[in-house]
Amino acid sequence: MTDTRTTRTRILLADDHGVVRAGLRALLEAQADMTVIGEAEDGREAVNLASELRPNIVIADLSMPHGGMTTISEITALGLGIRVLVLTVHAEERYLLPVLEAGGSGYVRKSSAHTDLLDAIRTVSRGEVFLDPAATKTLLRGYLGRMRTGDELDIGEVLSDREREVVKLTAEGYTAQQGAELLSLSPKTIETYRHRAMQKLGLTNRAELVRYALRAGLLSEEQA
After folding, report:
1. Which residue ranges make up each domain of the chain?
2. Is the pLDDT of residue 56 over 50?
3. Phi and psi of 78, rounded to 5°?
4. Domain 4-130 is of which CATH architecture?
5. How far is CA 100 from CA 19, 56, 72, 103, 121, in A?
6. Taking residues 200-216, what's their average pLDDT?
7. Which CATH architecture has domain 152-219?
8. Is residue 141 a contact partner of residue 219, using CB atoms and an 8 Å limit?
9. pLDDT score, position 176
């Protein structure tokens, strides 16, 4: 008989509000594919517990004491493959961009956690980046604004047309399955193009690929 606990996503909760942690724990423990292995009240404790417990994902509040971007960076720097999913009340662009740049793999607003959090956890656990539609639009506007100031990359001679298409879809938040349907390819082929593009660009994870695609100007203003 297979022990389903071995396949569960191991999650560490980091939030300074006990009521929030209790609510999150109840929601996540009700899922057959998730388990909460620890809780932290601030960023320092989150980093220490991440190192000790080695969760798959840390769900971190952006505004908790000793938290913020430093916590994301330090957990990522542990080199344990731990992904950080930010759960926060903030939606402004000034928070979105630094989250990805610090190594975060996702961004969910507390106001939409009841509908988006479980999907976000499953998306991030597959190694993909999760941003809700409103956050994606804000993020794209920020990068488009930077490109108007000249911070645009030219990758036309680096990637093939198909690789650019796949990178573009990745930046827009499409999964491999969704991209396959749009391009009439198999999900495995989409993954192959994505992996090949990452190799050419010297990138190591999909979060970096998203950031690079945005900086490269693969998205039009109409999409933002």
Report:
1. 4-130, 152-219
2. yes
3. -65, -20
4. 3-Layer(aba) Sandwich (3.40)
5. 27, 18, 9, 5, 16
6. 72
7. Orthogonal Bundle (1.10)
8. no
9. 82
